[in-house]
Structure formats: C-alpha cells, structure tokens
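A common beginner's mistake is to predict each chain separately and then try to dock the pieces by hand. The better habit, illustrated here, is to supply every component at once so that their relative placement is modeled jointly.
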Amino acid sequence: MATKLRARRHRRVSPTSESRPVQWALIGISLLFMGVILVLPLYAVFHEAFAKGIGAFMAALVEPDAQAAIRLTLLVAAIAVPLNVVFGLAASWAIAKFEFKGKAFLITLIDLPFSVSPVISGLVYVLLFGAGSFLGPWLKSYGIEVLFALPGIVLATIFVTFPFVARELIPLMQDQGTGDEEAALSLGANGWQTFWRVTLPNIKWGLLYGVLLCNARAMGEFGAVAVVSGKIRGQTTTIPLQVEMLYNEYNATAAFALASLLALLALVTLVLKSVLEWRFGDELAAAER
Amino acid sequence: MEVRVANVRKEFDRFPALNDVSLDIRSGELIALLGPSGSGKTTLLRLIAGLEMPTAGKIFFGDTDASEKTVQERNIGFVFQHYALFRHMTILENISFGLKVRPRSTRPPAGEIRRRALELLDLVQLSGLEKRYPNQLSGGQRQRVALARALAIEPGVLLLDEPFGALDAQVRRELRKWLREIHDRTGHTTVFVTHDQEEALELSDRLCVMSQGKIEQVGSPDEVYDHPTSPFVFGFIGDSSELPVTIENGEVWVGGRAIGIPAHDTPAGAARLYFRPHDVDLIEADASMAGVVTASRRVGGTRRVELEVGGDGHKVEIDLPFDHPAGEKTRLSFRPKRWKLFPAA
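With all components supplied together, the output reads:
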C-alpha cells in the first residue's frame, strides 16, 4: 500500500523534470560558476575601490581628470544613443513594414558590429580619417579633427552600439504587423500622426529596453574607443580608458573607484531591464524569439 | 454612395489575384463578397478601400474616380478581422481617433467629439465601457468597438473584412443579426467579405460569389441559391449533389436508363447533373434514379443518405426526414424536384 502511494507521488512529477540529485547538481554548478565569474569580480571591484576608505574613494572621483572622463563618457552617450535610436527606428520600420530588395542584406549589416572585434571597428575609422587617408587631411583643412577627438570617439561608439535598438525592434514590429497602421490610415490619419499616435506607443517598451542596453554598452565601450581616442588625459579619455590608465600606473584605488561607477551602471541597467521584462514581458517576448 | 469597380486587375509579384473584375455596388445596400480563400475577395475589398492599388482598371465612388486617391481621401470605414484596435488607448479614445486626427479646420471641438463617440458607443450597445482598454473586452465586444470607430468618421462606404471570422459560432450569429440592424438604421453602403455562406445568405441584400480572382455570380441570396449559373456556385452555395449523366433524345440518362428528367435545351452527349439533397422526391417508378444505400447518418432533424447510383461507383447524397421509413431500406429510388444541367468539364 505504502509503495503504491509513493509510486503514485513520483508519477506526479512531470516526465521532463530530472531527479532531485541531478537538479541540485545542475543548480550548484551554475551558482558556483556565476560566483567565480561574476559575483567575486564585482565584489573585488567595490572592495578595492573602498580599500583606502571612503575619503580616498571620493577624492579619486572628484579629481579633475576623472571628472573630465565622466563628462566625456556622458557626452558621448548623449550623442550616440539618440542617433542610434533614430537609426534603429528607421531601420526596423523599413525592415518590418516594407518589402524591398536587399532586405536580408540590411539585416546582416545591422548585425555586423556584433561579429566584428571592437578593435577592428576602431581601426576602420583610423584608416578612414587618419593622417594618410583622403578624408582626414581634407577635414583638417576645414579645422575639423575626427581622430583623437570627440567626433572619432562618438563615431566608434555609434558603430559598436548600433545593433541594440534595431535588433530589439525588428522582431517586435514584425510580430505586430501593419494592421494598426492600416486602421489609423483608414481613419484619416497621415503618416506622421500614425507614427506618433499608433506605431511609437506600440513599441515604446521594446524601444526603452533597446535604449537601456545601447546606453550601457556606449558608456562601457573600450576597444573601439581606445583605438581612436589617442588617450589624451583630461580630453579624450572616457571612463573605461581612464580606468585602464590609472591601473597601469598602479593607482588601484582610483582605478577601481571609477570602475565601480561602471559596475553601478551595469547593476542599475540590470535592475531596470528585469523590471521591464517582468512588467512588459508579453510585449517584449516577440523580440526574444 | 455608389461604388463602381470597372475592369480591375491586381497582380502581386506578377501573380494575378484579381482578373478583370467589374462590380456595381448600389447605394445603401449590404453586399457580401463570398468565396473560398484565395478567391480574391479580400483583395477586392482592400482595393476599394485604397489599402491596395489596382494594377489596371478603375474604381469610382459615385461619379468621381477614386482609383488615384489615397486611403485617407476616400473616407471609408474599414473593419479588420482581428479588430486592429489601438491597445494603448481606451475604448473612447479608439472611437474618437478618426475625429481627433483631422486637421484643425475640419475637426469638431473636443466636447462634440466626446459626445459623438459616446453616442456611437451607445449604438453598438457598449455604454459604460468607455474607460476600458481593448484587452479587457471579449472578441465580440472588440469588434463592436471597431465598428463604432469606423462609423465615427461618417464614412461614405463601410468595408468589413471577415468581421466575424475570429469569433465563435454563438457570438457570430448574434453579431450577424446586430450588424443587419445597425445597417438598417444607419443606411451605409456596406461591403463585407466572408467565406461563410450561411453568413452571406442571411445577412446580405446581394451577394457576389468569387472564385480564382473572378466574379462567378452576383445576385440576391435567393437568386444565387435557386439559380446558380455555374457548377462552382452550385457546389459552393448550399449543399449539392453532382452526377455525371448523358443527354440523349432530349432526356437525361444515368447508367443506361432514362430517369424522367427532360433536357430539351441541353446538347446531346455528356453532362453534369446538379441538385440539392433536400430537394428530391422518393418514387417507385421506372423513370427514376435508383441507388444502393452505402451510408446513412442522422443530422439533427434529417437523415442524410449516401447512395451509389448508375453502377459506376458515383455517389450522391439525399436528405430524408429522420423518421422516414425509407431510411431503413438498402435500395432507394428518387428523382430531383429541381435540378440544373451543366456541360461536362
């Protein structure tokens, strides 16, 4: 009788779930892995940052070069992210709502920055705007410096971060189709009204999600920016570059203090991302397929 | 408003969806475009709306050529199969959308817009739900909101694309009756697309049967049902039985014997006989069709009997009252009361 009951209880577990020991083993491995790869380094960053007390931490942050790096990082993100929003919207609109030749090619191109090493993306701009190039000296004759200046950093950042918004919106907009837009047009709305009143509200959470990821990457980008910045202290160093320079000078506290800002940005992004996923999961789900 | 479709052709990537279609839609009528999927009925509706542009041919609204006009300029009301309600707007905002997006010169004042939207909400019997969002309504309620939204702009023509296609049978029947009432009250020229013949027969003043990008027949539901002009229409509208026959000496022959049906107007040779399963007489006479019962099942109040006729394995269906004694027999003789002969395919 007792064995029968137990057998029945066992059967209630779904056929696809593993036995208890296997479950624990899998969970254990994942947690251990995450601990070593993610949590420990994060702890180390904050530990090092505050190793010499909160005074030293604050001093490292208000130091003029650090302040310049923070300002530059914010400025670059403030230019690159809105431009990528406009580009991402335009590209996903075109891909999701129209049929045209070369569509598959455009989708591949949008993914290019994901598959190209950031260093290469930086080098491309050096070749384009460097001293030996055609464009560089010509722009210089008009007093426009691209390389080792703000424009170069912004360009490299845009290149590296441009898939984020488009990648998020394309599947979402494809999933929603053109029904709502057709309804708006049939009711007399013009294209502009249709976009602002119907299309944009339909994709706003997906768009915000894309902006969040785009921004995190824009502020944290190292490789591409390192190549084009020239690392002029106080002028063309962003936070990630400044961190590396300080670290190479054995100024661990200052390096980790700045690094903790980036880590904080990552944590805030993670929380916002989770909130968005939890609150608007249905609308974002299309993008995850 | 009258709508005239004149010799319209529409191709998608060189695949013809509509082939030289002409149709006159009378002012104030409720006309159904009926056909199987792929017959071009939705394409025709979208061409009238201006959501597609014809490859060739013209569409007139009254006396004006609407072919070159945009969907906004045509002033049509369009209802979609999947509602296409704006999910981030309340029901009231959805209904007032068409008025709110008008340019300032023709836009009614805000109070007037609200009053009209509430009036329409009352017309579609959803008063009190104005603050809800579309996902808080049932499918039937959503489609009624969609209709109110389309009516808000006072369209010249109302176009409905399988409006009840996504709803379950019970709600479909209710909404069908309700749409007829609304139409009788507002008098809009209305075109609706459906693949459901029962819906088309019950709801429309006239129906336009389409197949493979062409119009097969246009007429009142009774005309189309009683006098189908093609085998396709006979087979598509209502139940039908079909049998290959031979015409000889002005009579119809099946399996080597005359069955008592005159055929003076049909040329001698092979032909196809069509009749309705319920439109037959059971008779015991030489001049009749005799068949062996191969299947018999009761469907509600009738018994549908499948008979093998003429010895070549051709099967036809006839209907009997479910308690008719003939339902017990293994062999039946019958003759259609009404029939139609078409040349052999």
